[in-house]
Design brief:
Distance between the termini: 96 Å
Helix content: under 10%
Number of strands: 34
Structural class: mainly beta
Low-confidence stretches: 1-7, 9-14
Length: about 400
Amino acid sequence: MKKSLIIIVLHLLVNIAYAQVTNTGTTISVEKQGLFYVNESYTHNSGTLMNNGEIVVENRWVNNTGSKLMDNGSVGLVKFIGGKGTLEGQKATFFPKLSFIGDGIFYLKNHIEIGDNINIGDAEIKTDGYSLSIFNPDVQALLYNKGFFYTQKESFLFRKTGQIGTYIFPFGSDKLNLKRPVAITPKDAGVNTYGAAFIDRDPSDDGYSRAVKKSGIGNINDNFYHRIIQTEGKSDADLLLYAGTEADQFNNLVNWATQNIWDIAPAAFRKDVPTLLPQLNAAAVYKLTATSNKEMPFAFSATLNTIELYNAFSPDGDGVNERWEIKNIDLYPDNDLKIFDRSGNLVYKKANYQNASAWDASNVAAGTYIYILRANVSGENKVYKGTVTVVKK
């Protein structure tokens, strides 16, 4: 039965339970060690809710007024039980502390803000187009056991950082029956806010066509991709994207570059990362540089085409083979090239060698030269040595 409330003050050790509660303008105050139990749903249309004890809700939470509901000095816990439920309404809800009990599905139908901590336990949190933001920079502000966030549409899980440590974003998918957490480790204790999402569908369906990619990139995974964004701060970080059995085929990382094309994301693809779940046997580690609120989609791709070095070119003015282009070198920007003459004199040196500005040998005579190329290929430094002949008329 719905109740119109005048004033409810739950004092120390005083407990009270209701089936359905609709607040239409009164003050509800749950004091320290007080318990306010709602068997079905709590709807907040107006009034004040102060919680320094514990509020337990079995089914629905509806907030129709004020995104800062409970941001009034409240430090208490709101606990969802019963194995299922929804958090909805016309406005976002601020929870000092929030927890979910059971291994069922809880739906976010509006934005949620967490001031202190959240514990999702074994629950699945399905974010149907809405985001959840954690403002506490403590690494342990998000706790989980087997639970995960199932991010859909434009949803993000946002975490504020401010400690040296690794911030976990536990993600999973009902459709694919898998879990793929993300880990972000800032390089310092600066204040930052990172958003992450795991999308269990073909990136082409969201405007990131897998067919639009730079030459040499292999097939891009069509089952899922990630979205990462940094909305606050200037710290660099290590971004770790976990992979499971798909790593046997898709063992490289690509991102949707500013040119609206999939490009190589220079990452170390490793199998010696800290294991969060037994089935996660690999991860791509990417150096995330500070951005200005720019969203970055990431996906796994198949083995990239290898670097090929030609042993001759002819910068003779006929318009053919005028520069020493290295096949697929543009896919591996972390590289440096040195070229020596037969006497061991350095005649050319270049970091981040690219075919668009390849060596034209204008500073040397015709002849054979020795090259040493170092390139970071899938996280491994590879060195290529050989000779190249410059042919001139």
